[in-house]
């Protein structure tokens, strides 16, 4: 029995030792896992750090190699830098054809004659009991400077030119309105004609407007037969108005040396041109002087 008891104790001791060895192995393995995780974590951190550093260097390189902020936008300089005197753009012969026996023109007011100007003439040819022939003529010039914030002068002039032509086609009370392009004058030109009834009589109105580079030229011309005189021929008035327009456009080119400086870009904003309408076409043609108010002026 003692031997059996001893064998039993030995078996139990062996079992305890086996369990202890298993426990030690488990503890060693358990301790090894965090070490491996830490090592893996360090390895992972090291790699991501390198990549981050590489990314940082790349970002820095990209930032260093990226172009600087773009310079301020520039626009093409306006071709024409000056305007002729509005009262001198038409020859004496042309004035005599349009406004017979008219005296010197009446200069319109302008706060800057380098950007806008106008001049008007009127005549009343009194034929006694046969009546009278009335004529009124106005020439207006408007020049646009290039501006970095608003655009090139010729584009601004084009917008105004189109607005002028549209205004002429939209006159209150106008009858028989006709509009047609005019060839061979400036960069673009339009002729608008219509009939207008006023208290003094029936008027034939001609408005011709042209854009040449950055300048808009508007010619307003009307005529009426009064006190029994016959109404003037609209076709003849239209031809005379176009003749005046062509001369005025040529005068603008001449005032700028037949072309001016059109090639140098402007890096700074130029003085903006006024957007307000010139003394030319308006939506209400009643703004032109009445025959009674202009006695051969």
The CA-CA distance between the termini, in Å, is: 157 Å
Taken as a percent bin, the fraction of beta residues is: 15-25%
- Count the DSSP helices: 4
In quaternary terms, these chains amount to single chain
For this entry, give a set of tags.
disordered C terminus, disordered N terminus, 297 residues
Polypeptide structure, described:
The chain is an alpha+beta fold. It is built from 4 helices and 9 strands. It folds into 2 domains: 1-66; 77-293, no CATH class. The strands form 2 sheets. It has a 7-stranded antiparallel β-sheet with strand order 2-3-4-8-7-6-5. A two-stranded antiparallel sheet has the order 1-9. Mean pLDDT is 77; it is low at 1-6, 26-56, 58-69, 259-287 and 292-297. α2 packs antiparallel against α4 (234-255).
Characterize this entry briefly.
With about 300 residues, the protein is α+β, with helices and mostly antiparallel strands.
Layout of helices and strands, plus pairs?
Blueprint: H1 2-65, E1 75-76, H2 92-98, E2 106-107, E3 116-126, E4 132-143, H3 153-169, E5 175-181, E6 188-198, E7 201-212, E8 215-226, H4 234-255, E9 265-266
Antiparallel strand pairs: 1-9, 2-3, 3-4, 4-8, 5-6, 6-7, 7-8
Helix pairs in contact: 2-4
């Amino acid at each position: 029995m003692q031997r059996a008891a001893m064998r039993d104790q030995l078996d139990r001791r062996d079992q305890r030792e086996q369990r202890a060895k298993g426990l030690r192995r488990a503890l060693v393995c358990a301790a090894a896992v965090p070490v491996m995780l830490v090592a893996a974590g360090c390895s992972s951190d090291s790699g991501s750090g390198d990549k981050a550093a590489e990314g940082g260097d790349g970002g820095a390189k990209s930032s260093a190699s990226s172009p600087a902020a773009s310079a301020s936008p520039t626009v093409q300089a306006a071709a024409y830098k000056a305007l002729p005197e509005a009262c001198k753009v038409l020859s004496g012969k042309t004035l005599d054809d349009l406004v017979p026996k008219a005296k010197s023109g009446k200069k319109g007011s302008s706060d800057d004659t380098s950007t806008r100007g106008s001049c008007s003439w009127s005549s009343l040819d009194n034929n006694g009991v046969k009546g009278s022939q009335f004529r009124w003529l106005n020439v207006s010039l408007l020049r646009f400077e290039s501006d970095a914030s608003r655009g090139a002068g010729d584009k601004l002039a084009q917008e105004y030119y189109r607005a002028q032509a549209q205004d002429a086609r939209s006159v209150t009370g106008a009858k028989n309105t006709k509009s047609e392009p005019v060839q061979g004058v400036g960069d673009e030109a339009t002729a608008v004609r219509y009939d207008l009834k006023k208290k003094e009589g029936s008027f034939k109105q001609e408005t011709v407007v042209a854009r040449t580079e950055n300048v808009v030229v508007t010619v307003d011309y009307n005529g009426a037969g009064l006190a029994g005189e016959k109404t003037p021929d609209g076709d003849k008035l239209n031809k005379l108005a176009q003749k005046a327009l062509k001369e005025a456009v040529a005068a603008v080119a001449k005032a700028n040396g037949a072309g001016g400086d059109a090639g140098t870009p402007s890096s700074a904003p130029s003085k903006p041109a006024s957007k307000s309408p010139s003394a030319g076409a308006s939506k209400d043609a009643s703004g032109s002087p009445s025959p009674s108010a202009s006695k051969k002026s």
